[in-house]
Amino acid sequence: MDILRKSDFCNNLDPISGPEVTISVSCNAAAQQLEQLEPSTGYSMTITSHQGDCNSVWATTAFTTTGGRGGDGPKDLTASQVTPRSPVLTWKPPSSKVSGYKLQYAIEGQAFQAQTDLRKHKLLRLRPGSKYLVRLQSDMGGVYTEAITTEFTTGDLRFPFPSDCSQELLNGVQESGLVEIFPLGQASVPVSVYCDMETDRGGWTVRAVAKEQLGAASASVCSDSMTYHNGRHFSTRDRHRSDIRFCAMFYRGGWWYRNCHEANLNGLYNTAHNQEVSGTL
């Protein structure tokens, strides 16, 4: 018997290519017990006979081993709240204590894996309009139980790979926040940006540019310039709260001013007075 090989794409989920193992058996043998295989793993097997320098035609089969402890696994894996980019996965935990869970999900030959010790998990940044297969196993101290599976399909978007926040607005996103965009299209590397969906009907891609000058800092200053502004309202010279109006107008920037600032990175560009950091980032 020759070449026992772990599947190149185990159970359509595990993209691990295992080594080839060759086993020699007696010419009178009609069966062979295979040992030390991994649970819940796909294998392909090829057998051929030898006589001198001649080999017979190869016969091939494939199989998948069962889980390590099928009775102790999670149950009722379900995908809910499915959006174009995210579902919430929930399941019922096993009756026995577990170390955690091994969660795998795959799309079109690409596989991903996550570890969690919770009873639900939210997947993020999925591909819109795509079908996903999910597999879940309990971790019993390094031994994984038999897997349970579920499938879901993410919703469609007008712009599945938005190039800026205006396209994300047309996708129906109305809340400001971090968004992943594709400036050069689907094939480009995604970039995380902040989308302002409130100012002037929304769709604004916010980009901040910080300027550093080597040698301009003082080693004696040890405060945290950014934390100083935590909890403050963002303001500009034409959109502000009364208690910080003076700061936004005088320093000519959009910032989370607080009497007035330790950091003012969005101040007027190329002036040391209006764009600066005091202390450390």
TrEMBL record:
Q: Does the keyword Repeat apply?
A: yes
Subcellular location, record wording: Secreted, Extracellular space, Extracellular matrix
InterPro entries, A to Z? ECM_Regulatory_Proteins, Fibrinogen-like_C, Fibrinogen_a/b/g_C_1, Fibrinogen_a/b/g_C_dom, Fibrinogen_CS, FN3_dom, FN3_sf, Ig-like_fold
Q: Where is the Fibronectin type-III domain?
A: 73-157
Q: Which Gene3D superfamilies match?
A: Gamma Fibrinogen, chain A, domain 1, Gamma-fibrinogen Carboxyl Terminal Fragment, domain 2, Immunoglobulins
What are the Fibrinogen C-terminal domain coordinates in residue numbering? 156-206, 224-281
Q: Where does the source fall among the domains of life? A: Eukaryota
| Protein keywords | Disulfide bond, EGF-like domain, Extracellular matrix, Repeat, Secreted, Signal
Could you identify this protein by its name? Uncharacterized protein
Q: Which organism is it from?
A: Coilia grayii
Ranked from the top, the taxonomy reads: Eukaryota, Metazoa, Chordata, Craniata, Vertebrata
